[in-house]
Specification:
The protein is 31% helix and 23% strand. It has 12 helices and 25 strands. The strands form 8 sheets. It has a 5-stranded parallel sheet with strand order 5-2-1-9-21, with helices on one face. Helix 1 runs parallel beside helix 10. The structure holds flavin-adenine dinucleotide (FAD). The site of flavin-adenine dinucleotide has 35 residues, from helix 1, strand 2, helix 2, helix 7 and helix 10.
């Protein structure tokens, strides 16, 4: 941070979990903060799958950035897409051509999906990173039923087969929510159609679901999904994706018009544009205080950053890491302004949780204190409770709670709207999603 007579300007790129928490943490620091994001809202990504499966409205999982900072006088917001950083001029360059000067920079643009070089993933598959993508997926799923309702042969050709690739938390949550939509909600919408022909196939390359979880949680997730009708295929790697089928390694052909890609992410391409060394998963290598070796006035945090535990294990790309890193960077900046060095970042792992579907979840909490595990209904409740706490915006919490209660008691999903025009898939992807 430069020592100027005016208050130093901290520019934060990205209003995700990391960026928002960095800006909030600077509330009492003698700095002016500018938050830049390509959207005028924060997206609560952990609940996107519920938008895609008609459980929540898009507006329930997003919150306007200007509203977040309504009461924080030292923060301003600029909507724009950052393309690169001019280190010499100390400017952030937007797609519009504007340059924005900074004294201190916090880069938190997140991650993008990784296709691992598999042909067709981004041409024909769906990903879940933005509201647009969640709405596109929901619209596409419902459109398959609209088509099959007047053309039953569509189901014969895989029109009602929904393939999810990736058995991590996102794939498992998506599979559980989708199978419930097909089983419990859509049959009464389509009396003219045999909806029982619809199926969900979950493809996982490894031999277990929820790999980072304990043995009991993994087995529980698999058991629940199978019992609810999901065709769980372990050891199944995707080799090619086409508009109306998927080819598995080994040659098997699965007819489907819907492939949902939940198989892994890599650091945002803005990391490459910074021109500093990248590590595993195209994440930016950072020092222990999360600043850059070549540019100590800049920090990279959240999904973009490759930070490690003291035992050198890379930290996972999850919301808690991003939140804690955002808060940490704010403390480092404040310390530097006082002429002190910033402390190294230490992740306090609160544990992990995933929902498998109605009344079924797994929560593995407080690993450092010996671990506390909930499965089943308690795991599901713990998940709902914690997501409500972290969902930004009072109205969003009220809406989400009301929708969950309503859905739980009525088996209804009110957001069954087709809002998106049919367009080539690639055009709908999060900007920055790219091939390896
Ligand atoms: C479907 C899904 C489900 C998930 N579920 C969970 C879960 O249950 N639990 C969990 O802990 N984690 C979950 N995660 C991971 C979690 O959401 C991420 O780890 C977290 O969002 C990372 O925060 P971040 O601030 O680094 O990035 P993000 O939250 O992705 O925020 C990045 C921000 O940068 C903005 N941006 C990107 N590029 C630019 C640009 N060029 N110019 C300007 N702005 C830009 C974006 O619009 C976005 O607002 C999930 C992720 C996904 C996709």
């Amino acid at each position: 941070v430069t020592d100027t007579a005016a208050r130093p300007r901290v520019v934060v790129i990205g209003a995700g979990f990391a960026g928002l928490n960095a800006a909030k943490g600077l509330r009492n620091a003698p700095v002016d903060v500018l938050v830049i994001d390509q959207h005028n809202y924060h997206t609560f990504q952990p609940l996107l799958y519920q938008v895609a499966t008609a459980g929540l409205d898009a507006g329930d999982v997003a919150h306007q950035v200007r509203d977040v900072f309504r009461r924080q006088r030292n923060v301003r917001f600029r909507m724009g897409r950052v393309e690169r950083v001019d280190w010499e001029a100390r400017e952030v360059l937007l797609a519009s051509g504007d340059g924005i000067g900074f004294d201190c920079l916090v880069v938190a643009a997140g991650a993008v999906y990784h296709d691992f070089g598999i042909p067709g993933v981004f041409d024909h598959g769906f990903v879940l990173k933005s509201l647009h993508e969640a709405i596109a997926l929901r619209s596409h799923v419902l459109r398959q039923f609209e088509r099959a309702a007047h053309d039953p042969a569509h189901a014969d050709h895989g029109g009602l087969t929904f393939a999810i690739v990736g058995g991590g938390p996102t794939g498992v949550e998506m599979a559980g929510a989708l199978v419930e939509l097909l089983d419990r909600v859509l049959p009464s919408d389509y009396p003219e159609l045999d909806v029982s022909r619809a199926r969900v196939v979950l493809l996982e390359m490894a031999e277990a679901l929820l790999l980072p979880y304990g043995e009991r949680s993994r087995a529980y997730a698999e058991r629940v999904l199978r019992r609810r009708g999901v065709d769980v295929r372990l050891g199944a790697a995707v080799a090619e994706v086409h508009a109306d089928h998927v080819v598995l390694a080994g040659g098997e052909r699965l007819a489907t018009h819907t492939l949902i890609w939940a198989a892994g992410v890599r650091g945002h391409p803005l990391g490459e544009a910074l021109g500093t060394p990248l590590g595993r998963g195209a994440r930016v290598q950072v020092r222990s205080d999360l600043s850059l070796e070549d540019h100590p006035e800049a920090f990279v945090i959240g999904d973009m950053a490759l930070a490690s535990d003291p035992d050198r294990t890379p930290l996972p790309q999850v919301a808690q890491v991003a939140i804690q890193q955002g808060r940490h960077v704010a403390r480092v900046i404040a310390a530097r302004l006082r002429g002190e060095a910033g402390a190294p970042f230490r992740y306090q792992d609160p544990g992990q949780m995933a929902i498998i579907g109605r009344s079924a979840g797994v929560a593995e909490l407080a690993p450092r204190l010996g671990g506390l595990r909930f499965g089943g209904f308690l795991g599901w409740l713990a998940w709902l409770f914690l997501h409500l706490i972290y969902l930004p915006g009072h109205q969003n919490r009220v809406n989400a709670f009301a929708s969950w209660a309503y859905n739980f008691f009525t088996y209804d999903r009110h957001a069954r709207l087709i809002l998106d025009e049919e367009r080539p898939r690639r055009a709908r992807m999060t900007r920055g999603t790219m091939r390896s």
